[in-house]
Amino acid sequence: MAFTMHSHSGQFCPGHAKDSLEDIIRHAIKMGFKSMGLTEHMPRTAVEDLYPEELTPSPSESLATLHPRHTSYLAEATRLQTLFSPQISLLVGFETEWLRPDEYIPLITTLAADPRIDYLVGSVHHVDSIPIDFDAPTYARAVAAHSGSEEALFTAYFDAQHDMLQALQPRVVGHFDLIRLFSSYEAQRATLPPLSTHWPGVWERILRNLRAAHCYGGWLELNTSALRKGLAEAYPMREIAEAWVGMGGKFTVSDDSHGVGQVGTNYGRGLGYLEELGVREVWTLERKEGGGVVERGVAIGEFRGSLKEEGSA
């Protein structure tokens, strides 16, 4: 049973993604997906939280669209749930932002209380309000804000992630080590010691966060978007993935697609990576007939066997 637990559309993530939600779902069905998690980004609350691509033509107008867009997303997602129910099980969630906890925790709690929401993808995209996955210059600005120390930035990222995990306990922990996307550490990793010895303080925080997620029953996603963005390994990197497997942690699978062309991207490589780690089963949610969802394990062989094709890179 092929699936993704993390996806986006151009309809509800304009400028950052492509294509309508319905077209993306139709393509997933064509590829053999039997389940799909819809997880558009949650609304943000202030102009300073906008990404650079959202600042034109008017930051205030962009901000004003976010909450109504979330409302429209939930309405469309539930319509499509019914429309496609004979062909695919659609789960409805959203991806969190983590900026000012005192402000965002109540907002996330309110949004998650909507009965249409099945689960959260808990993600951190900012460190001290600076995006760390937008582009290389913005990442460099985040490093500069931490006295030019990439180690300090990694430390702050994993501290913010720990706060998020403790406060929200999301079912899916989104792209656990997203911080490495534009990092010089990632670019030079082949010539550097393992992270556990290169930055011991960072590694201690990683283990702390893995333990926190495991304690409440969270799943790490095997997120293949890292591969289409040019990284050598999916999220999480092997050293982290091995530690998670050693704890008995569970993986789910996500393409983190941002349009039709990215659905199922690099799933073959991602599933092979999991098998190299000794993982034989991945996890998703299944809708119960009377309402609500339950966990379901899917053998990787079954997952692979249901894919009719793989997404483009």
From TrEMBL:
Which superkingdom does the taxonomy of this entry point to? Answer: Eukaryota
A GO MF label:
histidinol-phosphatase activity
Entries under InterPro entries matching the protein? Histidinol_P_phosphatase_HisJ, PHP_dom, Pol/histidinol_Pase-like
- Swiss-Prot/TrEMBL catalytic activity: L-histidinol phosphate + H2O = L-histidinol + phosphate
Q: One GO biological process from the UniProt record?
A: L-histidine biosynthetic process
Q: Which UniProt keywords apply?
A: Amino-acid biosynthesis, Histidine biosynthesis, Hydrolase
Q: Does the keyword Phosphoprotein apply?
A: no
Q: Return the GO cellular component terms, semicolon-separated.
A: cytoplasm
The PHP domain covers 5-225
A Pfam family the protein falls into = PHP
- Which EC number(s) are documented for this chain? 3.1.3.15
User: Which pathway is it part of?
Assistant: Amino-acid biosynthesis; L-histidine biosynthesis; L-histidine from 5-phospho-alpha-D-ribose 1-diphosphate: step 8/9
- Enzyme class, top EC level, equals hydrolase
Keyword Protein biosynthesis belongs to the record: no
* Assigned protein family: Belongs to the PHP hydrolase family. HisK subfamily.
Q: What is this protein called?
A: Histidinol-phosphatase
Tell me the organism.
Answer: Staphylotrichum tortipilum
